[in-house]
Design a protein that fits this description.
This protein has 3 helices and 6 strands, in the order αβββαββαβ. With 161 residues, it is an alpha+beta fold.
Length: 161
Amino acid sequence: MVLDDAIATFLGQPLMCILASSNAAARPAVGRGIGVSVSDDRQMLSVILSAWHYAALANAIEQSGRLAATFVRPSDYVTYQFKGAATLRKAEPEDNVRAAIFISDATAALSALGVPSGIIPQWMTTRDALVAQLAVAECYVQTPGPRAGMRAEQAGGSAAG
């Protein structure tokens, strides 16, 4: 699927990211993403995660080849979930820069909402960073409200606001 302009713009803002997959035994594994970029053709997301912190998640992605990535804008809870096939690769220097910016932006956004900045580093680290290459097959609006759970292209316009 091709992501529209509003969703691509949304993914460039300060966000939080929750990742989920399941292993070969269908056991769920979750973790936090620490960076994202959209491919030029808007069909792929490169989502950065810490394999050190979220080893079970990295193993699950390797085993199943599937990933769900949910991004939320902390300031207003606008949320999208992306699902599809995924592969992992080692992070390159530009990925580490992207992760540092993502973490800094998320920390600032959460701090502005009253979350103590001292607790945030335990959620997000770049140690042993990997990049999940997610081929977006599905995109859902998950913003609380009447369109939550709807496919983004059927939600009657962008919820990215």
